[in-house]
Design a protein that fits this description.
Keywords: Membrane, Transmembrane, Transmembrane helix. The protein is an all-alpha fold. It has one domain (37-426): MFS general substrate transporter like domains (Growth Hormone, Chain: A, Up-down Bundle). The chain is 69% helix and 0% strand. It contains 21 helices and no strands. It has helices at 37-43, 45-56, 62-77, 81-85, 94-108, 110-128, 135-149, 154-162, 169-177, 179-198, 200-221, 231-234, 238-246, 249-261, 270-278, 283-308, 313-322, 324-332, 338-367, 372-401, 405-421. Helix 8 (154-162) runs antiparallel to helix 20, helix 15 (270-278) crosses helix 16 (283-308) and helix 19 packs antiparallel against helix 20. The two termini are 27 Å apart.
Length: 443
């Protein structure tokens, strides 16, 4: 197999033969080569812990906590559910931020890039704790969170894992990606009770302290060698890499499947509790289901990570990403019994968990490590576009119909189609080795 030119580590080697769909290994050396499954965890435990803690205290945790604030904000300031749904359009900024942040991570390393978000993100939560109730101000602060907070997402932190693990890469990515879900599972109900007792402003201050303390802890734990693998990486040119990336069929299949599966993403954040209340659940039951959703994310993440280390990735992706279609159809149905809602939310959570593993795993498999964050940034930007499109559609349907049913039926179909798209990654010509533009010889 041909290696990626311009690296100091030589050719890219094939992944172990027991996984028939795996075609490449990481190309930048690291600590994982030649180790056993558990041995990789022993040697690279510090990097894995740093990435998990940093991700768990980063921007992604907002998806699990904002639902606790939503009813209080709507009640105090008189916002409509349709107005609040537009909040998710702030994710459009990821279309610009994530590709740039991914590229910067490949060039300058995880610690330098993540530091920016670790500093700014707590400040935005403090600002939210004192804002005056103007919806435009709230959306503006959320946009600020997205711009700087994306430096604390998986696009940045997962590079620590992709660069060090091979045998246990799926499980390691699962552990890293579970950071926000662990925070959500433990914190959602605690935060809900705290807000009920102390008020939503105190809730935002508590989140500010949490993100600051654990964000700084993560930076301190990043290994000293967590930097771009070689000087040659810094010489990479966007004019050479990006045209080749965009000509790759695998890139478009990954992005297309992720896009279709993430149109209903807006339901997994601030709208989840509101949707459950709309389906007849009381506040306590809805809060329990939000916590169950986060628990489902954790279970789905580990199950998917283990499956990726054992079975063809395109099959695992198709099954895992298609699960929410069942949950969405159930919520849209006339069956509003609590056990039906619990099952539907759990299915949505399981798939949400798998998503974090699948994106990183497929990218490193098809594109290697040198440009890992550059490609992952583009893929997750596609997810941001899908979330924004879904937010606009949901807002319109709430205005037109006053409920969620039409949107649920529409997105159930898109999720099913997106899940099936991943099967294309197993076809000849797409599942082959990655092609990366050559770099010029050193002067």
């Amino acid at each position: 197999m041909q290696g990626l030119p311009g690296t100091e580590q030589g050719p890219v080697r094939a992944l172990i033969g027991r996984r028939p769909d795996c075609s490449i290994d990481r190309s930048s050396g690291g600590d994982g080569n030649g180790m056993t499954y558990l041995g990789e965890f022993r040697v690279n435990g510090r990097a894995l812990l740093a990435s998990t803690v940093g991700h768990g205290a980063g921007l992604a945790v907002s998806a699990y906590i904002i639902g606790s604030f939503a009813p209080h904000l709507l009640k105090e300031f008189g916002w409509s559910k349709a107005d609040f749904a537009l909040l998710s359009t702030a994710t459009l900024l990821t279309l610009l931020c994530l590709p740039l942040i991914g590229r910067a991570t490949d060039l300058f390393g995880v610690r330098r890039v993540a530091s920016l978000g670790v500093i700014v993100l707590p400040l935005t939560y403090l600002a939210l704790s004192v804002f005056n109730g103007e919806l435009k101000v709230f959306i503006g602060l959320t946009m600020l969170q997205v711009i700087f907070g994306t430096t604390t997402t998986s696009t940045v932190y997962s590079r620590l894992v992709a660069d060090r693990f091979r045998e246990a890469r799926g499980m390691a990515l699962a552990i890293m990606a579970s950071g926000p879900a662990i925070t959500g599972a433990v914190g959602a109900m605690l935060l809900n009770d705290y807000i009920d007792e102390q008020g939503w402003r105190a809730g935002y201050r508590a989140i500010a302290v949490f993100t600051a303390v654990f964000g700084l802890l993560a930076l301190a734990m990043i290994p000293a060698d967590a930097r771009p693998a070689a000087v040659a990486v810094r010489r990479r040119r966007a004019a050479r890499d990006y045209p080749v990336i965009l000509r790759s069929p695998a890139f478009w299949v990954i992005c297309g499947g992720m896009f279709l599966c993430n149109i209903p993403q807006t339901l997994n954040g601030p709208q989840l509790k509101l949707m459950l209340l709309d389906n007849g659940a009381d506040s306590a039951a809805a809060a329990m289901m939000v916590s169950l959703f986060a628990t489902g994310v954790i279970i789905g993440r580990f199950a998917c990570g283990l499956a990726l280390d054992r079975f063809p990735a395109h099959v695992v992706a198709a099954v895992s990403m298609g699960l929410p279609s069942i949950g969405l159809f159930l919520i849209a149905s006339a069956f509003d019994a609590q056990w039906v809602l619990v099952g539907a939310v759990l299915l949505m959570g399981l798939s949400q968990g798998a998503e974090g593993d699948i994106a990183g795993y497929l990218v490193v498999r098809h594109f290697g490590v040198e440009i890992y964050s550059s490609v992952l940034g583009l893929c997750i930007a596609a997810l941001g576009l899908a979330t924004a499109v879904g937010a606009v559609l949901l807002s319109r349907f709430l205005d037109w119909t006053g409920g969620y049913v039409v949107f649920l039926h529409l997105t159930a179909g898109s999720v099913l189609l997106g899940g099936l798209m991943f099967l294309l990654l197993g076809r000849a010509g797409i599942a082959g080795r990655p092609v990366v533009a050559p770099e010029p010889a050193a002067d």
